[in-house]
Design goal:
This protein is mainly α and 196 residues long. It is 77% helix and 0% strand. It folds into two domains: 1-56, Homeodomain-like (Arc Repressor Mutant, subunit A); 63-190, Tetracycline Repressor, domain 2. It contains nine helices and no strands.
């Protein structure tokens, strides 16, 4: 058997890292941060505990990477916001994308909210999350300004808070929650012109 190439070694490392992140996401979302251990995560990933430490310093760093990579995947959905939101159609498309991300990433959002309810864990990612999301917040604020909301910044935060509440309700009971109807309601509310 010939020695592995650098490309093969890199592929193995990336595959292993992906297994670890997925196992951490599933384990921590099911058992909570305190109830999870590196041993449990390693068992779920089908690798040795030592192999996890080859990739991450500790459980704290692992959870930080899981959350930030999940958030990056969500932020990437908004890449076409660079030119801003100029029309109702563009706003609707962004809301549609947000709801699509939500429905496809139930495990991530379950973990995300379990972390939000644990302030010491949220502090691990708070600064990076604000840095990642601030351009999106600015874009929505500009949109609400163009459709004549008197306080577009406050409306942006109300909109984001609405999305957070929707996400939490959906995460708690996805089979029961009327996600499509709620999405349409949000679009109707936030595309009105000349609102206070």
């Amino acid at each position: 058997m010939s020695p592995r190439t650098k490309k093969q070694i890199q592929h193995i490392k990336e595959t292993t890292r992906g297994k670890i992140l997925l196992a951490a996401l599933e384990t921590i979302s099911k058992e909570g941060y305190a109830g999870s251990s590196i041993s449990k995560i390693a068992k779920k990933a089908g690798i040795s505990k030592g192999n996890i430490y080859n990739h991450f310093l500790n459980k704290e760093e692992l959870i930080k990477v899981v959350l930030l990579e999940g958030m990056k995947s969500i932020v990437n959905e908004y890449t076409n916001l660079k030119d801003g939101i100029k029309t109702k159609e563009e706003f609707t498309k962004m809301v549609d994308q947000n709801f699509e991300v939500l429905s496809k990433n139930h495990s991530y959002w379950k973990l995300y909210y379990s972390v939000l309810l644990q302030p010491q864990l949220f502090q691990l990612i708070q600064e990076e999350m604000m840095e990642m999301t601030s351009p999106i917040i600015k874009t929505f604020t500009e949109y609400f300004k163009t459709i004549n909301y008197k306080d577009p910044e406050a409306v942006t935060w109300a909109f984001i808070s609405s999305l957070d509440g929707i996400t939490l309700s959906y995460v708690m009971n996805p089979e029961w929650y009327p996600l499509d109807k709620v999405k349409q309601s949000i679009i109707n509310i936030y595309t009105k012109h000349n609102r206070p």
